[in-house]
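Support request from a user on the community tier.

User writes: "When I paste my structure tokens into the form, the page sometimes reloads and wipes my input. The last time it worked, I copied everything first. Here is what I submitted, just in case something in the input itself triggers the reload:"
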């Protein structure tokens, strides 16, 4: 069983999500539940993934005042998710509040603490778009800056593009978890992603986990594509 491929359940309802988990479960252990599915189906979808014996990456990218993000982190820990994420651009206090709250809640509930990952720069963003937001650093510098802040705030790792994985790995060491979306197997449609990589190059660059959505969930045969990606990862 490959534990490094995360499939993004970017679908509109519980039934479709459950069906995908059933199809993919023999090859995939971690499923990502994002804002579309969680808004539509809530915690019942997290439960459905558990009932299939799999783990959840709750990808709600919390970004709010520290108090609110801490309370959201408590709920994520109480649900027993394997990992969840926050936006590093929410700042150090917000990230520390999330990590502390997740730790306390998991210890009270006697569950393993969820991994807390920080989103640096969304993989759909490019430099012109960053400039539009008033961020004048190069993408690489902005990603590195946010990743260092996240590490110093106690986060377990970051979500970043494969391009960035290599220098984050080098600068922040082997213990810092790197999760990489924006993955396209050879010949696949890029969609709205900008900074993409193949499964193999992402792993080579130092990613611990790769996240794949549309290439798998929109395929005629999702399991075949997942297995091909595992092969490309060298697993
Ligand atoms: O369909 P695709 O493979 O592009 O899906 C990538 C998934 O990873 C989406 O669910 C998206 O929300 C998520 N993601 C991302 N870039 C980030 C963080 C998460 O694409 N920086």
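"...and here is what came back when it finally went through:"
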């Amino acid at each position: 069983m490959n534990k490094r491929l995360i499939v993004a359940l970017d679908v509109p309802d519980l039934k479709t999500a459950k069906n995908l988990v059933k199809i993919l479960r023999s090859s995939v252990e971690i499923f990502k539940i994002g804002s579309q599915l969680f808004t539509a189906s809530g915690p019942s979808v997290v439960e459905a993934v558990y009932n299939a014996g799999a783990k959840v990456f709750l990808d709600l990218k919390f970004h709010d005042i520290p108090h609110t993000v801490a309370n959201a982190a408590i709920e994520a820990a109480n649900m027993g998710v394997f990992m969840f994420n926050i936006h590093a651009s929410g700042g150090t206090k917000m990230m520390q509040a999330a990590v502390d709250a997740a730790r306390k809640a998991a210890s009270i509930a006697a569950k393993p603490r969820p991994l807390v990952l920080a989103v640096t720069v969304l993989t759909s963003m490019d430099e012109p778009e960053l400039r539009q937001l008033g961020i004048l650093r190069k993408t690489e510098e902005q990603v590195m800056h946010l990743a260092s802040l996240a590490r110093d705030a106690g986060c377990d790792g970051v979500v970043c593009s494969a391009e960035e994985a290599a220098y984050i790995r080098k600068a922040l060491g082997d213990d810092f978890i790197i999760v990489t979306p924006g993955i396209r197997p050879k010949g696949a449609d890029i969609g709205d992603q900008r900074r993409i990589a193949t499964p193999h190059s992402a792993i080579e660059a130092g990613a611990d986990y790769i996240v794949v959505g549309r290439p798998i969930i929109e395929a005629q045969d999702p399991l075949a594509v997942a297995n091909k990606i595992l092969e490309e990862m060298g697993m």
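Agent notes: The reload is a front-end session timeout and is unrelated to the input. Residues 63 and 90 are 5 Å apart (CA to CA). The longest helix spans residues 92-108. Escalated to web team.
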